[in-house]
Amino acid sequence: MVKAPPQSVVEELVAVLLAGSSTEMFLAEAAAAAARRLGLPPPDGCSIAVSRRRRPVLAVCTSGLEGLHAGGEYGPGSPGGVVLGGGPDVVVADLAASHRWTALSGAADHGIRAFAAVALPLEGDRGVLSCYAGSAYAFGPAEMAAVHAVAAETAKALRLALLLDAQTNRAANLQSALESRTVVDLAAGIIMGQNGCSQQAAIDILRSVSNSRNIKIRNVAAGVVAAVSDRVSTHFDE
Fold first, then answer.
1. Any bridge partners for residue 114, and if so which?
2. Which intervals hold domain ANTAR (predicted)?
3. CATH for 178-228, among 3.40.109.10, 3.30.365.10, 1.10.10.10, 3.30.420.10?
4. pLDDT tens digits, the chain, 238 residues: what are they?
5. Using CA atoms, how far apart are residues 86 and 83, in angstroms rounded to an integer?
6. Does domain 9-169 have CATH number 3.30.450.40?
């Protein structure tokens, strides 16, 4: 029997997308796929982070690296953060002999000796692939060429994942805005009926209460509606 050729990184990750995985789950699979391709089984491994417009950085890692991930690997001044911010690749040949990156101090305590972080070539968003190895000098020229190749392949599928993620986020924001507008309109109608005022005057009343109490106008409106109805439900068919 003729064996099917192994899947490429792109094919493997597109299959994950077609399965309907969340963006976080996709990144987890992408990090795991990168670790397999680069020969970095636990306790070695990879992590991936993406910086999306007006949204928090999303970062995931392979099994066994959770403690390092929680240490702020992608924070300001960290090697991953530098690359994520548009800086050059970061390669640390031997963590035991290098003290430049304090964010990686915990990695050495966990038996990690070498580290590499490279940018994921995305469009609009920014991403970084970080690799960890238990052997010093694990990321020489040949290994870094492989890291860049995997990063390029990963980015192809990641661009699609982030496009879908952005569309989903926009749809959720629109849904929230529509529901918020409905509640505000209902509350304005109630105030108009109670006070015999115009719609604009009713909106101004809601806005004044919102500002004076430092509460979102939607929450103020919901309180007005709740005062005259036990339950208000807003629903929009997709």
1. 133
2. 164-225
3. 1.10.10.10
4. 444 456 777 777 878 777 777 889 999 999 999 999 999 998 899 999 998 887 888 899 998 887 766 546 777 778 888 999 899 999 999 988 888 888 887 787 788 999 999 999 988 789 999 999 999 999 999 999 999 999 999 999 999 888 887 777 777 777 777 777 788 888 888 888 888 888 898 889 888 888 988 988 888 888 888 888 654 454 444 4
5. 5
6. yes
Give the per-residue SS3 of 89-131.
Answer: CEEECCCCCCCCCHHHHHHHHCCCCEEEEEEECCCCCEEEEEE
Pairing of strands 126-133, 45-51: antiparallel
d(CA 163, CA 156): 11
Count how many residues are written for the chain.
238
Q: What CA–CA distance (Å, rounded) separates 231 from 226?
A: 6
The DSSP output letter for 133 is E
Q: Where are the domains of the chain?
A: 9-169, 178-228
